[in-house]
Write a structure and sequence with these properties.
By secondary structure, the chain is α+β, with helices and mostly antiparallel strands. About 40% of the residues lie in helices and about 40% in strands. It has 4 helices and 6 strands, in the order H-H-E-E-H-H-E-E-E-E. Strand 3 (about 85-95) and strand 4 (about 100-110) form a beta hairpin. The chain is globular. The relative contact order is 0.17.
């Protein structure tokens, strides 16, 4: 029985490591897009669906378009956007096509440095990992 657990571990580990690396790459791409003031590029990390769920500031929004509009209204220019830093606490694979990511964010701006935490649910859609649920505080 123990050999079976070892075998399963060997089979899952490369997949898990590759998936985690892919998820981290999505977040790195989002951070880079944000830091060049490209909100639409940042949004590429999200599932382009009306089922996308975004929870922040006591509100629940649905839909990729609504999320984009919210970002554009809140961050109208590069100065307001500042420089984004992500610090990942954990990337936990829930299955072959789902993961839970917990971390911290911070914006570096001339006037202030707001920060908070996030919990993301990633789902593999086709060949791509996308955020399907974002709870940011």
């Amino acid at each position: 029985m123990r050999w079976l657990l070892v075998l399963i571990g060997l089979l899952i580990s490369p997949l898990t490591l590759a998936s985690e690396a892919d998820i981290r790459a999505v977040l790195a791409q989002q951070q880079a897009a944000w830091n060049r003031a490209d909100i639409e590029g940042y949004m590429q990390g999200y599932w382009h669906s009306e089922q996308l769920r975004f929870v922040s500031s006591g509100k629940i929004k649905y839909g990729w378009d609504n999320t984009l509009k919210g970002y554009q209204a809140r961050y109208p220019d590069a100065a307001t956007m500042g420089k984004l830093l992500f610090e990942l606490e954990t990337v936990q694979m829930l299955s072959e096509d789902a993961a839970l990511v917990v971390g911290r964010w911070q914006l570096l701006r001339k006037k202030d440095q707001p920060a908070g935490e996030f919990t993301l649910i990633f789902k593999k859609i086709g060949d791509n990992w996308r955020i399907v649920h974002d709870h940011t505080s």
